[in-house]
Amino acid sequence: MTDFAGRTAWVTGAGQGIGQAVADSFHARGATVIAFDRQWDGERPYRTVTLDIADAAAVAGTGRALFAGGAAIDVLANVAGILRMGPVEEMEDADWHDTFAVNVAGPFHMMRTVIPALKRSRGGAIVSVSSNAAHVPRAGMAAYGASKAALTSLTMTAGLELAPYGVRCNVVSPGSTDTAMQRALWDGADGAAKTIRGDPERFKLGIPLHKLATPQDIADAVVFLASPAAGHITMADLLVDGGATLGR
Predict the structure, then answer these.
(1) Which class would CATH give 8-179+215-239?
(2) Terminal CA-CA length for the chain
(3) Stretch 30-51: mean pLDDT
């Protein structure tokens, strides 16, 4: 039920972290993968495209070129994202705008580009990687949390509009995941342990499963929601955070 042979998956943010794990997972399951990121390091066993998804014109042009060259699409995985930290009153305009440009406008640009093809095929799936920060507030994460809440809402709206065409749209909301983005938040060698314990002063609960997620944990959830195994699931938001938000 998670065999993607003969199907094509487009994955953003595939240069590293969760995005790379998602692209690798689709490839391992037989999909033709078209992977997007702003820069690439090393060879991949699938097609890589250099693209800034925040650039509407670039996304539209790249999409036209891919479709003109015979590319298909069955799955769009919106994984690319950035994190800019800071209290609300100290947040720089550039950080706020950049966060929304990548985390919200980028997926919007990608959806707008591929939806006509998905509607014509009367099937397929869109999966957006949001965050459990869209469910609960996090001190110092105003821009990130707000952008991920917007991404969740965008994906749900697309799901409602595309349901008559058999296109399913779902969200995966990770918690703390062992990626470069997560490690950049740590201020010492015990950063992982502190994250698992939680921080009462910042109103942040710990992780009941007592471990961080791996990028593969998140990729597995994305692949499931894109697969026939989730054929009657749409407009769902799957928390993959080890219980950190207590299932909220």
Answers:
(1) alpha beta
(2) 28
(3) 97
